[in-house]
Amino acid sequence: MALVVQKYGGSSVADAEKIKNVARRIADTKEQGNEVVVVVSAMGDTTDELIELAYQVTKHPSDREFDVLLSTGELVSSTLLAMALKEAGYEAISLSGAQAGIVTDTTHRKARIRKVEAKRIRAELDRGSIVIVAGFQGITDEMDVTTLGRGGSDTTAVALAAALEAEVCQIYTDVEGVFTADPRVVPEGHRLEEISYEEMLELATYGAKVMHPRAVELGELYDIPILVASSFSRSPGTLIHGGVSMEVHNKVRGIAHDLNVAKITVVGVPDRPGIAATIFQPLAEANISVDTIVQNASIDAITDLTFTVTRGDLERALQVVEPICQSIGARECVVDAKLGAVSIVGTGMQNAPGYASRMFAALSERGINIQLITTSEIRITCIIAESQITDAVRALHRAFELETAG
Amino acid sequence: MALVVQKYGGSSVADAEKIKNVARRIADTKEQGNEVVVVVSAMGDTTDELIELAYQVTKHPSDREFDVLLSTGELVSSTLLAMALKEAGYEAISLSGAQAGIVTDTTHRKARIRKVEAKRIRAELDRGSIVIVAGFQGITDEMDVTTLGRGGSDTTAVALAAALEAEVCQIYTDVEGVFTADPRVVPEGHRLEEISYEEMLELATYGAKVMHPRAVELGELYDIPILVASSFSRSPGTLIHGGVSMEVHNKVRGIAHDLNVAKITVVGVPDRPGIAATIFQPLAEANISVDTIVQNASIDAITDLTFTVTRGDLERALQVVEPICQSIGARECVVDAKLGAVSIVGTGMQNAPGYASRMFAALSERGINIQLITTSEIRITCIIAESQITDAVRALHRAFELETAG
After folding, report:
1. The whole model's pTM is what?
2. Which of A7, B81, B111, B181 could cross-link to B146 by cystine, CB 3.0-4.6 Å?
């Protein structure tokens, strides 16, 4: 008997009918002879509505209270799903994050899972029950509720799969899997049968919304195969795992893109040791995530420092950087807020030259100017004008012949 | 420094503005030098909406899941209230029923509180915090969430007041206190300054909606003074306590009325020992609460048995009683579904004759036919046609000169 962990996102359980539909899918998995643990997100827009409620009461909601508030969304969906399964004649029980033994640190609103004490889940499975776990939440050693922040329910699912040594963690969502490019941008983009953890990590980090990088990372760490598939169809989805053939025929696997990129350039920075830390440490302390960082070669000990942030963080980033800019004697801060990022990702790339030049040529042919370039071993990212992102993704999809890739 | 327990009902915290208003009242109590523990109900219609959601998913929601579902309503309101207090500059923390140490039996949907382990509350109070407790919920020894059923949040408040040895338990609601009669029925009805536990218990049991009898009973048991007052005004409310003068001038203190009464008469019952148990035990097992029971003097060992149930229980009661009726050889079951109850309540009554006759005369003058009569030491209840209830309440209010009572 295999143990399967399934996760259903908010759009999959948005109303009573959808919950019943999900219950049928879970029942099928049980009927196939599996033990089933299900992680569920809050219904539809519930989380957003709870956040709005908090901000109607106060501009600065207490983090601790905020977490208890948000955690109710998953309690509601998990109980309703358990009810639907019982109605269909199956033994089922809902467990809160606390009851499921998801123990986290005390960092409210973006807690990290410290350990999973799966005793109660194990006992309920042994009793023959389908176990429904409220996603996105955990509990501290002091018995205070925490939430896991972005990608929380995916992370709950993969963590449970690891703790329970599940055969597979299935992430059901509103898309049919991982595509060579966002199918809304590239209609001829197609679903990948499988992808490696590293490739998925790069795609997710650089804009593919299908799964949060954090959960992919955890999957890689514990070597849990993760299937991403649609909760509305029976499409086979995409399997993220460690056993993908290293010598895949076409070495670019997918194109990721990200809008809402903003660029800040600190012009005329005196180039002395420690100057980068002077700028980036305060940004880290303000909890602003800095992405690409580029420093030009310095001329006469004066250099320019360029970095990107998400557009939502731009204003706060400037509030941090501008005073520093003055205090270190830099000339000025220049901002470009309307940028995007386009990335090609593929494990094979690292040992095969020519991918970068092919990418740059494809963009250049479309008259797209590249503002910044960064690379990892399996990814090349170009920062370009946001208005040219769609054109760039399509051009790269063609240039790397992804419409014919397997 | 006194310890005060306050409870705010659902209509008092129905939206963000009302929550802020309640926060101001709590802050005032704190500023007066008190330690404050607050019990809060779910916002407005939240509980009804959650119930509806459950019934959209299944006709027979699992009791255990139902309780977790409903308990989220009070988690939401308690966190929002804690946020509002923090926004106003006060230390405040919300606690779930479990965190507050409300330990119950395992009877889901109408659990009874077994004990209160108030250690965490005490620790938070010692830290200077205002403690907001989610009402209506508790936890079993197995760490499963339960709800307390009708009057749950009032019961939470009084139980906490008892465990913490509070000076007073203040129940804030949408009415200004306990009235001589429902002011919507009798405009000249007025607020009572004080009332004894016994009188309040009778009024609440026989239709006064202001407080649930269960919480009054608990208050009496632990001798906790209970103030019932409005959360929207600064009216002084009504104090329910044990120290009310026994020799009050006007011995009828209030008129309670109840609609939705249904009467079942089992006609032609063979009058032999154990016959009442044959009928009423199956009703109790079906969880149907039987109110007034009257058995006529038997003629030739044949009698009639009459009892009342709430109209909502009528159909289920008949399903239980009709087969019994046949099996014991009774002639028939006769139903009158459109009845109401009107009661006069007052501690002084028990030693002063003439109250019953004054009541019957007042009803008779208005042409109101009495179908059943029951009494306790401090109450007389008449079952009459529902359509005549308003008229009866007004007539009795005048007959006992309650418009001039203190």
Report:
1. 0.85
2. B111
